[in-house]
Specification:
It is built from twelve helices and twelve strands. With 307 residues, it is of the alpha/beta class. A seven-stranded parallel sheet has the order 8-7-6-9-10-11-12, sandwiched between helices. It has a five-stranded parallel sheet with strand order 2-1-3-4-5.
């Protein structure tokens, strides 16, 4: 029977369906244990992972039977896709299956930060009453700059323009916007930095995008924007981001992804109560609904592949 190894959490009903057709080994802890993973991967035909399982060539060279990798999510930076291509291993992301969850996170965090909700909350629970000392603004007619205009970037544009934001998008690989639902203008990176009140990042982590938003980028931002990153840590330089906030070059940030996950004290010690920020543990794409969609999608793809 075809053997499938699953190394991170999956929706239970989808798992039960998979077990009807395959010999499944499911161990959510395997993503943390390289030695065990290298053993278990040896005789599997298919592998299902999220973003924590590091599938570099060192690990993959143990998997001589492997023909299919299903990724419960998008972003393939934890998988050596070049190695997979050479070895004829099919890599399947769940493109589009968590787009609504991430886009809702971006809309809600941009609204919260523009409204300075974290600061009002912090003052109020300390017994202060910062009704006039903290000023918040409206999002209507403000500029949202989107960097990386793929599946999620476009959905964020669609949601945000309906909320009254004017959307600018930077993506050198997109030549035109031909979806009438999306009200956005393709722009240069400079224009985004100069005009935006909110900047949301939706890039893959690649050699080109690593450290792309850095000290020099923050220095070009004219409107003290809110920065939102739900894509990958490492695309924004975290030290430069905190410095930009402390120097009042940006007025808030929401981070769902980090250079090191879980975050380390070196980073979180710099976050002080009362800062206009929201930090979350890589959950923007993970809701009850998206977990079902993502899991069902990958189970269907792996079933079709081996049948
Ligand atoms: N936090 C989460 O839970 C979560 C969930 C889903 C996705 N993600 C991350 O979000 C990223 C985006 O997801 P997606 O589904 O929209 O991917 P996508 O592939 O549909 O879109 C990425 C876009 O980035 C563009 N791009 C690539 N290099 C660029 C560059 N140098 N400059 C500007 N644009 C560039 C591409 O042309 C593409 O249009 C994923 O790669 C993943 O890492 C995170």
């Amino acid at each position: 029977m075809t053997k499938i190894l699953i190394t991170e959490f999956i929706n239970q009903d989808s798992l039960d369906n998979l077990k009807k057709n395959f010999d499944v080994l499911y161990n959510e802890q395997l993503c943390e244990n390289k030695i065990e993973l290298e053993k278990k991967i040896k005789d599997c035909d298919g592998l299902i992972v999220r973003n924590k399982t590091q599938l570099n060539s060192d690990v993959l060279k143990n998997a001589s039977n492997l023909k299919f990798i299903g990724r419960l999510g998008v972003g393939l930076d934890n998988i050596d896709t070049e190695y997979c291509k050479n070895k004829n291993i099919h890599v399947q992301p769940a493109t589009g299956m968590n787009v609504d969850s991430v886009a809702e996170y971006v809309v809600s965090s941009s609204l919260s930060l523009i409204k300075k909700i974290p600061m009002f909350h912090n003052g109020t629970i300390k017994g202060e009453w910062p009704r006039t000392t903290i000023k918040s603004i409206e999002i209507n007619h403000k500029y949202l700059g989107i960097i990386g205009f793929g599946t999620i970037g476009k959905k964020v544009a669609e949601y945000s323009s309906k909320n009254g934001l004017k959307v600018l998008a930077y993506d050198p690989y997109v030549n035109e916007i031909n979806n009438k639902e999306i009200d956005a203008k393709l722009s240069s990176l400079n224009q985004i930095y100069e005009k935006s009140d909110i900047i949301s990042i939706h890039l893959p982590l690649t050699d080109e995008t690593k450290n792309m938003i850095n000290k020099s980028s923050f220095s070009q931002m004219k409107n003290k924007p809110i920065i939102i990153n739900t894509s990958r840590g490492g695309i924004i330089n975290e030290s430069d981001l905190i410095e930009a906030y402390n120097k009042n070059n940006i007025s808030g940030f929401a981070l769902d992804v980090f250079e090191k996950e879980p975050i380390e004290s070196k980073f979180y010690n710099k976050i002080k109560p009362g800062m206009n920020c929201i930090l979350t543990p890589h959950i923007s794409g993970v809701t009850t609904e998206s977990n079902i969609r993502v899991s069902d999608f990958i189970v269907k793809k792996i079933t079709d592949f081996f049948n």
